[in-house]
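Feature request disguised as a bug report, sorry. It would help if multi-protein outputs had a clear separator. Right now it looks like this:
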Amino acid sequence: MAKKRKYYVVWDGVNPGIYKSWADCQQQIKGYPNAKYKSFASKDLAESAFHESNYEDNISKKSPKSRIDPALFAHEIIQDSMSVDAACSGNPGIMEYRGVWTGDAVEIFRIGPFTNSTNNIGEFLALIHGLAYLKKIGKDNLPVYSDSRTAMSWVRNRKVKTILPRVKNNQDSFALVDRGLKWLKDNTYKNPIIKWETKKWGEIPADFGRK
């Protein structure tokens, strides 16, 4: 039986990109300090990982997420804050997102489901929705937690780097993406966006609990 082809993503190396063989990948990482790379079972997965996420996001998927009780670290977590998260069944697949108050996990909003979308898009929309909601109610200094470095970078750079094509059955989620980008262009916010440290604190309070 022929060996199944793997694809290699190099995030940090001589020439970052996607490579079709381990030999080609090695040329980009050999002797390169702290090279960041990972193999994927298909070209689509590799492209999604390279264009839509980063090394840390993908390495964290190697092992099950922690089930630590965040209450153990209550002194480190800002209780008077919002937490946002997204869930997607498949990639792409059926996606929804929501926001909760961090201290008591009371749900503030839940949007979706959307078909043929991605988790990264959902995480981005959750952050935008949260920031807009807090601005609307006059809490534009309240921190917002997210466990997605990718979504945080999209918000920070005001640019969504997704390779998902716009087609008929995902027009609704892309319409929200466009609205979100316009909101970022037309508005300012003071809310600190803070990375939720899942490995240390356990699941973010907005997690959908579907792992």
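(second protein starts here, but nothing in the output says so)
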Amino acid sequence: MTNPDSRSTAANRVEADDPLRVAGRTYHSRLMVGTGKYRDLDETVRAVEASGAEVVTVALRRTNIGQNPDEPNLLEVLPPDRYTILPNTAGCFTAKDAIRTCRLARELLDGHTLVKLEVLGDQRTLYPDVPATLEAAKILVDEGFEVMAYTSDDPITARRLEEIGCVAVMPLAAPIGSGLGIQNPYNIVEIVRNATVPVLVDAGVGTASDAAVAMELGCDAVLMNTAIAAARDPVLMASAMRKAVEAGREAFRAGRMPRRAQADPSSPTEGTFFE
């Protein structure tokens, strides 16, 4: 019988041999998680811990990290010395607002420059405004920010963001909060194939199998919030997502078997005992 501890040791060894590198930082977890939509800070912390995430994203327009001294501060329960805090510009509909939000994050986090840029173009669909995203990305990169850019699943846009100097591109799998899973795997594969910076699926993941598929397509990581926070048991779902991302990454590295149009028996058909 296999010792469960040996399986855990093997999994840890695989993670150590295959780190994720973003903007010069190295991570062993390829799952990044959001901090919104939970019932309270206690549930937030328990879900983040269960996910194994080392990077947590924070919406500055909705979460207090010091800008409101009279409210609970997220950084007191998810301290920056333990997690990489990734401020994001969720809720921004103009390049100007997104840039201002990133500058505020840098001030609140003592010069922190790693940010997730998100400029939305429509209140109903929450699809990204690509021209505004490109505009904001260029200004922020010129100001010394390390920009992880949320964008559409258009390979050309992803290439433009990389050319501007973004440290990661983050195409959506489906609309934000929809839980529909990856709707256009072909485009995701094209983005991965052409990118020289990390590619993270961001938005649209609904359950663990969606996260595994994203990793099997070759994505470097997955970022999610609603899929965990809106689950019936967020802490258990966070654990499931952790395992799914690890399994999907291992499957990608292993290389799947070829697809065939007909059966190929796994047991030999010749030389059997009953011939």
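Even a blank line would do. Unrelated, but nice: The longest strand covers residues 146-151.
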